Amino acid sequence: MQSRSTAIWVALLAACLVGGVVRGAKGQTGNAPPGEPGMAQATMSVDSALAKAEELIHELEQSYVLPEDSEDRYAAAAKLSNTVLEVEPLNVRARYLQGRLANLRGRPREALPLIEAYVNDPLGASDWYARTLLGDLYVVSYPQHAITQFRDAVRLAPEEAGPHAGLARAYVKLSNGEEAVDNARQAIRFDKQDRAAYHKTLAEALLLLDDRFDEAARAILEAIRITERRVRENPGETHFLTELKGYYDLLVSCRSQQFALYPDRADVVVEVIRTALDQADLDRLIAYHGALQTVELARANEAMADAPDLILEEARLNRLVGRDARAIEVLETLLEKSPSYQPARDLLEAIRPTMPPETKAALSSGSSGRDG
User: Secondary structure of the chain: what % helix, strand, coil (to 5)?
Assistant: First the structure.
């Protein structure tokens, strides 16, 4: 529903921008001469344009999975802020939004001065979200500066999770475990989106303290649980697997440190072994996803698009990564083209026992039709 609404907005914005368009504070229009005969002028106020641009940017910033129309949203937000700057070249808020767009694109050096200027302007001085973004940009290289921004953000919005999480990360960078743990727990307390990263930060903070390995492991396992759910909900989004691998790497580090201190504890040895096996399973799953991408790329080649062995491998890999519905779809397509291809029938029969009765019946009916 959100994507459809945004698509309509993008179309309307395009009409405004082409028709020419954003009114300045005194009613002037940019790009199109005011009052030109015969021209139907779609207009939008500067504040409305910036509000819509900020809405689009915020949606992208908060997305676990980028929506299909994310490029359209990015382009619409960029065009809105650019059009405002054509009318008001010194508009601090428009430049701030361009900084956020740059940050989304992975260009922090470009983003930093634009977001700094907004925070240092009276317009943005009380914007907790902007201060949190600025702290995020500082935290890697200037954690002490980041703490100043995050503290101000906490003061402005004490029940928002982001500033507390930022403080926790900054204190981890400064090896201040106690402060990091306190703020990580606050972030988790106020979290409304079940973010795995907050539990990871808590684990990193606990590992700075003496003998808090079991607590740290529990925090990491919670991050793993959340991310495994994201993987199940978004099977095609392999970046969640990359996040999951990072959490397992941290868990291995935690267990290894614990084993170094307690080599004679059987329970620690068991956890080290189990973690290593779980990590190996995850590595295998990541390899399956990589192989599936290779097969899909190969099938994009017209010469191999209909190769039965390649199509069968695509179905098999889909099943291995937990995408049974997609595997069935691929097998049905293959059997339509090659009804007597027995390996495809065998794989379909192997999948059937795990499927609901109504789906089994539908597939059986479809197979009978092909056989006839």
Answer: 75, 0, 25
